[in-house]
Amino acid sequence: MFVAKQYSEKHQIPYYECDTTQFLKIPTLVKMLIKTSGAQSDALGVSDEFMASLGLGWIILQHDIFIKRLPKAGETITVTTEAESYNKFFCYRHFWVHDEAGNECVFMNTTFSIMDLETRKMGSVDDEVLAPFESEKIKRIRRGEKTLPLETVHGEKEYTVRYYDIDMNKHVNNSVYLDWAVDSLDAAFLMTHTPEKIVVKFNKEVLYGNKIKSEYQLDDDGISRHNIISKNDNSAKVTITWKSLD
Amino acid sequence: MFVAKQYSEKHQIPYYECDTTQFLKIPTLVKMLIKTSGAQSDALGVSDEFMASLGLGWIILQHDIFIKRLPKAGETITVTTEAESYNKFFCYRHFWVHDEAGNECVFMNTTFSIMDLETRKMGSVDDEVLAPFESEKIKRIRRGEKTLPLETVHGEKEYTVRYYDIDMNKHVNNSVYLDWAVDSLDAAFLMTHTPEKIVVKFNKEVLYGNKIKSEYQLDDDGISRHNIISKNDNSAKVTITWKSLD
């Protein structure tokens, strides 16, 4: 079996990364996981700066997140990642969160692609760039988890992109879409529910100052469906499966 | 000379705590500093939970922040705090950020008070609660730095309090006011300037779902003055002295 190089970091969760019920904020979970992929790339000599020198940048197309339990304030977790496999168009990266007892709390499968920084279009994935990760080259295109389309809009909120929402790529950081999706739901619901599965599909980048509409449908089966709309374009779709907190 | 007990923590700054120019986000700097006061309280057996069991909670009245340089992504900083002194109504706490070479990057002086959790009114500061910090008891009321009133509104933005803005006290976390103040300024200004001094005075708590107006005046001397207004009340005033990034 092919085994990609793994990279791990420990992280103690400060209270300010947690919500009012002391669980890790969902957007912060994603930022924390993605951080380790950057750290692995740096460690292997294929940093974002090196990629940029080739005129290339990573873009995120989809997150599939499976949550056994969200970590809480004060816990020390271990985040592990590997660039599991890739084909001509996509790279598939795995992430895990383990608690101090070694139990798996979170698994995330993220689909990346490579963008030509000049044309802002998708490029093909170069073997040389991927070599240091010992990632398996595969032929097939993997299908990620599905998002569900909205049938009825149960509620919506509007947002304007803030200065601190923008990352070094000069567009809205991928984690912020989850902030908009989650925040559209009622606080009373959020304080009594925790996510089990989150699927995010990114369609279009959003820029500083853009206005956003975050629409949701929340069904009795505990599944919420979200559209993040900017300038009449669907910029991202999110589907979250929730369970009641006891 | 009286010396209060000090408490220190190291912190490596992940990129996601930084803005698009790689400097630590200002609201995150404040959250990071305040975190250490909670950690010291826990370590000394006077945690927030213990305070709550007495019907008391800490509230923040003012931050005076002096910045030599904002730390950047990847740096490991040391945050140190002490409950320097107190009188009948107020506690004065000091915070420092030092870089790996031991240089002081940031100093913050924060004025706390104690709130009766039932009446939501200010209570008097109890000697017993303060004893473990070895804080000096003083008679005088210290005057913090001054905020400047707005003479002309140069710009304003509106915000709605989000679920993740609320902390365990069920009101907007003190750091979020800085998010609203900074974000009201133009991105082009923020990308080319860095703060040297920040004064925040809190007047009134803001709750989940409240609508906020963030007004600013930015003068040629590089000083920005901010009002954070909720329901026609001035909830906080902020004054920031900026300098150009070279």
The CATH topology of the largest domain in chain A? Thiol Ester Dehydrase, Chain A
Instruction: Specify the biggest β-sheet of chain A.
Output: 12 strands, mixed
- What class do helices, strands and sheet pairing of chain A give? alpha+beta
Radius of gyration of chain A over alpha carbons? Answer: 18 Å
> What's the CATH first level of the largest domain in chain A?
Alpha Beta
Q: What is the string of helix and strand elements of chain A?
A: EHHEEEEEHEEHHEEEE
CATH architecture of the largest domain in chain A: Roll
Uncertain regions of chain A: pLDDT < 50 for 5+ in a row? none
Could you characterize the architecture of this molecule?
Chains A, B: Belongs to the acyl-ACP thioesterase family. Chains A, B: It comes from Candidatus Vagococcus giribetii. Chains A, B: InterPro entries: Acyl-ACP_TE_C, Acyl-ACP_thioesterase_NHD, FATA/B, HotDog_dom_sf. The structure is a homodimer of 246-residue chains. By secondary structure, chain A is an alpha+beta fold. The first copy, chain A, folds into two domains: 6-137, Hotdog Thioesterase (Thiol Ester Dehydrase, Chain A), CATH 3.10.129; 155-244, Thiol Ester Dehydrase, Chain A (Roll). Chain A has five helices and twelve strands. The first copy, chain A, has helices spanning 26-43, 48-53, 127-130, 174-184, 187-190; strands at residues 6-12, 56-67, 76-86, 91-98, 104-116, 121-123, 136-137, 155-160, 193-202, 211-218, 223-230, 233-244. In chain A, strands 1, 2, 3, 4, 5, 6, 7, 8, 9, 10, 11 and 12 form a twelve-stranded mixed β-sheet that branches. In chain A, α1 runs antiparallel to α4. The radius of gyration of chain A is 18 Å and the shape is globular. In chain A, 37% of the residues are buried. At the A-B interface, α1 and α4 of A face α1 and α4 of B.
